[in-house]
Amino acid sequence: MSTEWPEEAYRLLREGGVDQFAYVPDAGHQHLIDRSIADPEVHSIALTTEEEGVGMLAGAHLGGSRGVLLMQSSGVGNCINLLSLIRAGRFPFLTLISMRGDFGEGNPWQMPMGQSTQPVLEACDVICLRIDEPGEVARTIGAALTMAFQNEMPVAVLLGQKLLGAKKF
Amino acid sequence: MADPNEGTRAAGKTATGHLDRRVAVKTLLDMQGDVLIVAGLAGAKGDVTAAVGDDPRVFGFGGAMGAAASMGLGLALAQPNKRVIVVTGDGELLMNVGTLATIAVANPANLGIICVDNEHYGETGFQRSHTGLGTDLAVMAQGGGIGAVRTVRETAELHDAGEMLRNSNGAAFVLLKVAVNEPPKMRTVWDASWHKTRFREALLGHP
Q: Are B63 and B41 in contact (CB under 8 A)?
Protein backbone atom coordinates (compact mmCIF):
# COMPACT_ATOMS: atom_id res chain seq x y z
CA MET A 1 0.00 0.00 0.00
CA SER A 2 1.20 3.50 -0.79
CA THR A 3 2.42 5.58 2.16
CA GLU A 4 1.95 8.81 0.19
CA TRP A 5 -1.74 9.40 0.80
CA PRO A 6 -1.64 8.11 4.39
CA GLU A 7 1.17 10.55 5.11
CA GLU A 8 -0.91 13.34 3.61
CA ALA A 9 -3.89 12.22 5.70
CA TYR A 10 -1.77 12.35 8.86
CA ARG A 11 -0.54 15.84 8.03
CA LEU A 12 -4.09 17.06 7.42
CA LEU A 13 -5.36 15.59 10.70
CA ARG A 14 -2.53 17.24 12.63
CA GLU A 15 -3.07 20.56 10.85
CA GLY A 16 -6.74 20.19 11.71
CA GLY A 17 -5.82 20.14 15.39
CA VAL A 18 -6.27 16.43 16.03
CA ASP A 19 -4.03 15.27 18.88
CA GLN A 20 -5.80 12.18 20.20
CA PHE A 21 -5.51 9.10 17.96
CA ALA A 22 -7.57 6.14 19.16
CA TYR A 23 -7.37 2.82 17.34
CA VAL A 24 -7.67 -0.90 17.31
CA PRO A 25 -4.65 -2.25 15.39
CA ASP A 26 -5.45 -2.56 11.70
CA ALA A 27 -3.53 -3.11 8.45
CA GLY A 28 -5.42 -0.41 6.55
CA HIS A 29 -4.49 2.25 9.11
CA GLN A 30 -0.97 1.03 9.74
CA HIS A 31 0.80 4.17 8.55
CA LEU A 32 -1.46 6.54 10.51
CA ILE A 33 -1.12 4.41 13.63
CA ASP A 34 2.68 4.20 13.33
CA ARG A 35 2.94 7.94 12.72
CA SER A 36 0.84 8.69 15.80
CA ILE A 37 2.95 6.35 17.96
CA ALA A 38 6.13 8.07 16.79
CA ASP A 39 4.75 11.61 17.26
CA PRO A 40 5.54 12.99 20.75
CA GLU A 41 2.95 15.76 20.27
CA VAL A 42 -0.05 13.42 20.21
CA HIS A 43 -1.72 10.79 22.36
CA SER A 44 -1.75 7.48 20.54
CA ILE A 45 -4.15 5.18 22.36
CA ALA A 46 -4.61 1.49 21.61
CA LEU A 47 -8.14 0.36 22.47
CA THR A 48 -9.42 -3.08 23.35
CA THR A 49 -12.63 -2.41 21.43
CA GLU A 50 -13.65 0.40 19.11
CA GLU A 51 -16.49 1.64 21.29
CA GLU A 52 -13.94 2.90 23.80
CA GLY A 53 -12.90 5.36 21.11
CA VAL A 54 -16.40 6.84 21.00
CA GLY A 55 -16.30 7.67 24.70
CA MET A 56 -12.72 8.83 24.51
CA LEU A 57 -13.35 11.28 21.67
CA ALA A 58 -16.36 12.76 23.44
CA GLY A 59 -14.18 13.19 26.53
CA ALA A 60 -11.51 14.86 24.41
CA HIS A 61 -14.08 17.39 23.20
CA LEU A 62 -15.26 18.06 26.77
CA GLY A 63 -11.65 18.92 27.57
CA GLY A 64 -11.12 21.11 24.47
CA SER A 65 -9.15 18.61 22.35
CA ARG A 66 -9.80 16.93 19.03
CA GLY A 67 -9.56 13.23 18.40
CA VAL A 68 -9.96 10.71 15.61
CA LEU A 69 -10.99 7.06 15.82
CA LEU A 70 -9.18 4.76 13.37
CA MET A 71 -11.04 1.51 12.90
CA GLN A 72 -11.94 -1.24 10.49
CA SER A 73 -15.49 -1.53 9.18
CA SER A 74 -16.10 -4.48 11.53
CA GLY A 75 -15.50 -2.14 14.46
CA VAL A 76 -18.47 0.01 13.47
CA GLY A 77 -20.77 -2.71 14.73
CA ASN A 78 -19.11 -2.50 18.14
CA CYS A 79 -19.81 1.23 18.37
CA ILE A 80 -23.54 1.40 17.73
CA ASN A 81 -24.98 1.94 21.20
CA LEU A 82 -22.23 4.31 22.28
CA LEU A 83 -22.93 6.49 19.25
CA SER A 84 -26.02 7.54 21.21
CA LEU A 85 -23.61 9.58 23.37
CA ILE A 86 -22.49 11.45 20.25
CA ARG A 87 -26.02 12.05 19.05
CA ALA A 88 -27.60 12.90 22.43
CA GLY A 89 -24.74 15.23 23.32
CA ARG A 90 -24.29 16.63 19.80
CA PHE A 91 -20.58 15.95 20.11
CA PRO A 92 -18.26 16.37 17.13
CA PHE A 93 -17.01 12.94 16.03
CA LEU A 94 -14.48 11.96 13.38
CA THR A 95 -13.65 8.41 12.41
CA LEU A 96 -11.58 6.97 9.56
CA ILE A 97 -12.77 3.52 8.58
CA SER A 98 -10.74 1.03 6.58
CA MET A 99 -13.23 -1.07 4.67
CA ARG A 100 -13.41 -4.85 4.57
CA GLY A 101 -16.20 -6.83 2.97
CA ASP A 102 -15.96 -4.42 0.08
CA PHE A 103 -14.45 -4.26 -3.44
CA GLY A 104 -12.61 -7.54 -4.14
CA GLU A 105 -13.08 -9.09 -0.67
CA GLY A 106 -12.06 -12.77 -0.51
CA ASN A 107 -13.20 -13.61 3.03
CA PRO A 108 -16.94 -14.27 3.36
CA TRP A 109 -16.83 -13.55 7.11
CA GLN A 110 -16.05 -9.93 6.30
CA MET A 111 -19.04 -9.39 4.02
CA PRO A 112 -21.93 -8.96 6.50
CA MET A 113 -20.42 -6.09 8.49
CA GLY A 114 -18.64 -4.59 5.48
CA GLN A 115 -21.87 -4.35 3.53
CA SER A 116 -23.79 -2.94 6.49
CA THR A 117 -21.17 -0.42 7.62
CA GLN A 118 -22.53 2.60 5.77
CA PRO A 119 -26.26 1.89 6.38
CA VAL A 120 -25.56 1.34 10.09
CA LEU A 121 -23.59 4.56 10.40
CA GLU A 122 -26.26 6.52 8.55
CA ALA A 123 -28.95 5.02 10.77
CA CYS A 124 -26.96 6.45 13.71
CA ASP A 125 -26.88 9.90 12.04
CA VAL A 126 -23.20 9.70 11.08
CA ILE A 127 -22.38 11.40 7.76
CA CYS A 128 -20.41 9.05 5.49
CA LEU A 129 -17.81 10.32 3.03
CA ARG A 130 -16.30 7.57 0.90
CA ILE A 131 -12.87 7.54 -0.74
CA ASP A 132 -11.99 5.11 -3.53
CA GLU A 133 -9.10 6.94 -5.25
CA PRO A 134 -5.86 8.32 -3.76
CA GLY A 135 -6.57 11.66 -5.45
CA GLU A 136 -9.72 12.11 -3.31
CA VAL A 137 -7.98 11.71 0.04
CA ALA A 138 -6.91 15.29 0.79
CA ARG A 139 -10.15 16.93 -0.28
CA THR A 140 -12.32 14.43 1.58
CA ILE A 141 -10.38 14.51 4.82
CA GLY A 142 -10.39 18.31 4.67
CA ALA A 143 -14.16 18.26 4.24
CA ALA A 144 -14.55 15.77 7.08
CA LEU A 145 -12.45 17.90 9.45
CA THR A 146 -14.59 20.96 8.69
CA MET A 147 -17.86 19.06 9.11
CA ALA A 148 -16.74 17.32 12.31
CA PHE A 149 -15.09 20.17 14.18
CA GLN A 150 -16.54 23.39 12.75
CA ASN A 151 -20.03 22.08 12.09
CA GLU A 152 -19.77 19.72 15.10
CA MET A 153 -21.28 16.75 13.31
CA PRO A 154 -20.44 13.06 13.44
CA VAL A 155 -18.50 12.16 10.29
CA ALA A 156 -17.06 8.89 9.01
CA VAL A 157 -14.54 8.73 6.17
CA LEU A 158 -14.79 5.31 4.53
CA LEU A 159 -11.53 4.18 2.92
CA GLY A 160 -12.71 1.69 0.30
CA GLN A 161 -10.90 -1.45 -0.74
CA LYS A 162 -10.40 0.08 -4.17
CA LEU A 163 -8.11 2.53 -2.39
CA LEU A 164 -6.60 0.15 0.17
CA GLY A 165 -6.46 -2.98 -1.97
CA ALA A 166 -8.17 -6.19 -0.92
CA LYS A 167 -6.32 -8.49 1.47
CA LYS A 168 -4.80 -11.51 -0.27
CA PHE A 169 -5.59 -15.01 1.04
CA MET B 1 -33.73 -8.32 61.69
CA ALA B 2 -36.00 -5.96 59.79
CA ASP B 3 -35.07 -5.38 56.15
CA PRO B 4 -33.82 -1.76 55.80
CA ASN B 5 -34.91 -1.87 52.16
CA GLU B 6 -38.50 -2.81 52.88
CA GLY B 7 -40.88 -0.93 50.62
CA THR B 8 -38.19 -0.20 47.97
CA ARG B 9 -37.17 -2.11 44.86
CA ALA B 10 -34.11 -3.34 46.75
CA ALA B 11 -36.28 -5.16 49.30
CA GLY B 12 -34.82 -8.54 50.22
CA LYS B 13 -31.51 -7.91 48.40
CA THR B 14 -28.18 -8.39 50.10
CA ALA B 15 -24.57 -7.64 49.18
CA THR B 16 -21.21 -8.41 50.79
CA GLY B 17 -20.48 -4.67 51.21
CA HIS B 18 -21.98 -2.49 53.89
CA LEU B 19 -20.72 1.05 53.18
CA ASP B 20 -23.36 3.73 52.58
CA ARG B 21 -22.80 4.60 48.90
CA ARG B 22 -23.82 8.25 49.26
CA VAL B 23 -21.50 8.78 52.22
CA ALA B 24 -18.58 6.86 50.69
CA VAL B 25 -18.68 8.68 47.34
CA LYS B 26 -19.04 12.08 49.01
CA THR B 27 -16.16 11.37 51.37
CA LEU B 28 -13.86 10.50 48.47
CA LEU B 29 -14.97 13.41 46.26
CA ASP B 30 -14.70 15.94 49.10
CA MET B 31 -11.02 15.03 49.42
CA GLN B 32 -10.24 15.70 45.74
CA GLY B 33 -10.60 19.50 45.59
CA ASP B 34 -10.98 21.05 42.15
CA VAL B 35 -11.67 18.11 39.84
CA LEU B 36 -13.57 17.27 36.68
CA ILE B 37 -16.07 14.46 37.12
CA VAL B 38 -17.57 11.97 34.71
CA ALA B 39 -20.54 10.24 36.30
CA GLY B 40 -21.71 6.93 34.88
CA LEU B 41 -25.38 6.30 34.39
CA ALA B 42 -28.03 5.55 37.00
CA GLY B 43 -26.89 5.07 40.62
CA ALA B 44 -23.41 6.52 40.12
CA LYS B 45 -24.80 9.76 38.72
CA GLY B 46 -27.14 10.00 41.70
CA ASP B 47 -24.21 9.58 44.09
CA VAL B 48 -22.24 12.33 42.35
CA THR B 49 -25.19 14.72 42.24
CA ALA B 50 -25.88 14.10 45.92
CA ALA B 51 -22.21 14.70 46.73
CA VAL B 52 -21.38 17.83 44.71
CA GLY B 53 -24.78 19.18 43.62
CA ASP B 54 -25.69 20.28 40.12
CA ASP B 55 -22.13 21.30 39.27
CA PRO B 56 -21.10 22.40 35.75
CA ARG B 57 -17.89 20.39 36.03
CA VAL B 58 -19.78 17.13 36.11
CA PHE B 59 -20.75 15.31 32.93
CA GLY B 60 -23.33 12.69 33.78
CA PHE B 61 -24.61 9.87 31.61
CA GLY B 62 -28.24 8.92 31.03
CA GLY B 63 -27.42 6.07 28.65
CA ALA B 64 -24.55 4.84 26.43
CA MET B 65 -23.77 2.34 29.17
CA GLY B 66 -20.09 1.48 29.36
CA ALA B 67 -18.67 4.78 28.10
CA ALA B 68 -17.94 6.62 31.37
CA ALA B 69 -14.41 5.31 31.85
CA SER B 70 -13.34 5.88 28.25
CA MET B 71 -14.79 9.39 28.34
CA GLY B 72 -12.74 10.02 31.46
CA LEU B 73 -9.64 8.89 29.57
CA GLY B 74 -10.20 11.33 26.68
CA LEU B 75 -10.89 14.14 29.12
CA ALA B 76 -7.83 13.36 31.26
CA LEU B 77 -5.57 13.36 28.19
CA ALA B 78 -7.05 16.68 27.05
CA GLN B 79 -6.66 18.29 30.49
CA PRO B 80 -3.36 17.04 31.94
CA ASN B 81 -3.30 19.79 34.57
CA LYS B 82 -6.70 18.87 36.02
CA ARG B 83 -7.59 15.76 37.96
CA VAL B 84 -10.40 13.73 36.38
CA ILE B 85 -12.52 11.36 38.44
CA VAL B 86 -14.84 8.81 36.87
CA VAL B 87 -17.59 7.49 39.13
CA THR B 88 -19.27 4.39 37.74
CA GLY B 89 -21.11 1.29 38.91
CA ASP B 90 -20.21 -2.39 38.80
CA GLY B 91 -22.75 -3.08 36.07
CA GLU B 92 -21.48 -0.34 33.80
CA LEU B 93 -17.83 -1.20 34.31
CA LEU B 94 -18.48 -4.87 33.56
CA MET B 95 -19.96 -3.87 30.23
CA ASN B 96 -16.64 -2.48 28.99
CA VAL B 97 -14.16 -3.96 31.39
CA GLY B 98 -11.41 -3.91 28.75
CA THR B 99 -11.28 -0.14 29.20
CA LEU B 100 -9.38 -0.83 32.44
CA ALA B 101 -6.57 -2.27 30.30
CA THR B 102 -6.72 0.65 27.87
CA ILE B 103 -6.48 3.12 30.76
CA ALA B 104 -3.68 1.14 32.42
CA VAL B 105 -1.59 1.22 29.24
CA ALA B 106 -2.21 4.93 28.63
CA ASN B 107 -1.71 5.47 32.39
CA PRO B 108 -2.64 9.15 32.67
CA ALA B 109 -1.34 10.56 35.95
CA ASN B 110 -4.52 12.60 36.45
CA LEU B 111 -7.23 9.93 36.08
CA GLY B 112 -8.97 8.16 38.95
CA ILE B 113 -11.88 5.73 38.79
CA ILE B 114 -14.31 5.10 41.62
CA CYS B 115 -16.46 2.01 41.11
CA VAL B 116 -19.51 1.91 43.36
CA ASP B 117 -20.07 -1.82 43.68
CA ASN B 118 -23.44 -2.80 45.15
CA GLU B 119 -23.34 -6.18 43.35
CA HIS B 120 -26.64 -5.43 41.65
CA TYR B 121 -28.17 -3.81 38.57
CA GLY B 122 -30.23 -1.30 40.53
CA GLU B 123 -31.74 0.56 37.59
CA THR B 124 -33.34 -2.51 36.05
CA GLY B 125 -34.75 -3.97 39.26
CA PHE B 126 -31.81 -5.05 41.41
CA GLN B 127 -30.83 -8.21 39.61
CA ARG B 128 -27.58 -9.65 40.97
CA SER B 129 -24.42 -8.71 39.03
CA HIS B 130 -21.29 -10.80 38.50
CA THR B 131 -19.57 -8.99 41.37
CA GLY B 132 -21.99 -10.62 43.81
CA LEU B 133 -21.15 -14.01 42.37
CA GLY B 134 -17.37 -14.02 42.61
CA THR B 135 -16.09 -11.45 40.07
CA ASP B 136 -13.65 -8.99 41.64
CA LEU B 137 -13.31 -5.74 39.68
CA ALA B 138 -10.31 -4.61 41.72
CA VAL B 139 -8.44 -7.76 40.69
CA MET B 140 -9.48 -7.09 37.10
CA ALA B 141 -8.18 -3.50 37.36
CA GLN B 142 -4.92 -4.84 38.75
CA GLY B 143 -4.78 -7.52 36.09
CA GLY B 144 -5.42 -4.87 33.47
CA GLY B 145 -2.26 -3.21 34.68
CA ILE B 146 -3.49 -0.32 36.83
CA GLY B 147 -0.84 0.25 39.49
CA ALA B 148 -2.82 2.07 42.18
CA VAL B 149 -5.78 -0.08 43.21
CA ARG B 150 -7.73 -0.21 46.47
CA THR B 151 -10.77 -2.09 47.66
CA VAL B 152 -12.62 -0.22 50.40
CA ARG B 153 -14.94 -2.15 52.70
CA GLU B 154 -14.78 -0.03 55.86
CA THR B 155 -15.33 3.69 56.46
CA ALA B 156 -11.90 3.88 58.11
CA GLU B 157 -10.29 2.87 54.77
CA LEU B 158 -11.83 5.74 52.81
CA HIS B 159 -9.18 8.27 53.80
CA ASP B 160 -6.27 6.28 52.39
CA ALA B 161 -8.19 5.57 49.20
CA GLY B 162 -9.01 9.27 48.80
CA GLU B 163 -5.34 10.15 49.27
CA MET B 164 -4.37 7.61 46.64
CA LEU B 165 -6.87 9.09 44.19
CA ARG B 166 -5.59 12.58 44.83
CA ASN B 167 -1.86 11.90 44.78
CA SER B 168 -1.34 8.97 42.46
CA ASN B 169 1.09 9.64 39.62
CA GLY B 170 -0.60 7.07 37.41
CA ALA B 171 -4.14 5.89 36.82
CA ALA B 172 -5.89 4.93 40.08
CA PHE B 173 -8.85 2.68 40.83
CA VAL B 174 -10.98 2.45 43.97
CA LEU B 175 -13.59 -0.26 44.40
CA LEU B 176 -16.22 0.72 46.96
CA LYS B 177 -18.03 -2.30 48.37
CA VAL B 178 -21.33 -0.69 49.30
CA ALA B 179 -24.59 -1.94 50.75
CA VAL B 180 -27.40 -2.59 48.31
CA ASN B 181 -30.18 -0.06 48.69
CA GLU B 182 -32.20 2.38 46.65
CA PRO B 183 -31.34 5.94 47.63
CA PRO B 184 -33.77 8.72 46.63
CA LYS B 185 -33.62 9.72 42.94
CA MET B 186 -31.63 12.86 42.15
CA ARG B 187 -33.30 14.78 39.34
CA THR B 188 -31.01 16.38 36.75
CA VAL B 189 -31.49 17.81 33.26
CA TRP B 190 -31.55 14.98 30.69
CA ASP B 191 -30.16 17.03 27.80
CA ALA B 192 -26.58 15.82 27.30
CA SER B 193 -25.85 18.61 24.82
CA TRP B 194 -26.77 21.20 27.43
CA HIS B 195 -24.49 19.49 29.98
CA LYS B 196 -21.66 19.35 27.45
CA THR B 197 -21.94 23.05 26.66
CA ARG B 198 -22.17 24.03 30.32
CA PHE B 199 -19.16 21.85 31.16
CA ARG B 200 -17.05 23.38 28.37
CA GLU B 201 -18.04 26.92 29.31
CA ALA B 202 -17.03 26.31 32.93
CA LEU B 203 -13.74 24.64 31.96
CA LEU B 204 -12.69 26.38 28.77
CA GLY B 205 -14.58 29.67 28.93
CA HIS B 206 -16.40 28.99 25.65
CA PRO B 207 -19.06 26.54 24.43
A: yes
What structural domains and CATH numbers belong to chain A? Answer: 4-164 (3.40.50.970)
ipTM of this predicted structure: 0.97
What is this structure's pTM?
A: 0.97
Class of residue A90 by CB neighbours under 10 A (exposed 0-12, middle 13-18, buried 19+): middle
Select the residue of B62, B70, B196 nearest A91 (Cβ to Cβ): B196
The Cα of A103 is separated from the nearest Cα of chain B by a number of Å equal to 32
Among A61, A80, A82, A85, which would you mutate to test the B interface (most chain B Cβ atoms within 10 Å of its Cβ)? A85
Mutate one of A57, A62, A93 to test the B interface: name it (highest B CB count within 10 A): A62
Domain coverage including residue B31: 21-204
Decide if pLDDT at A107 tops 80: yes
- Does residue B52 lie within any of the structural domains? yes
pLDDT in tens, A17-50: 999 999 999 999 999 999 999 999 999 999 999 9
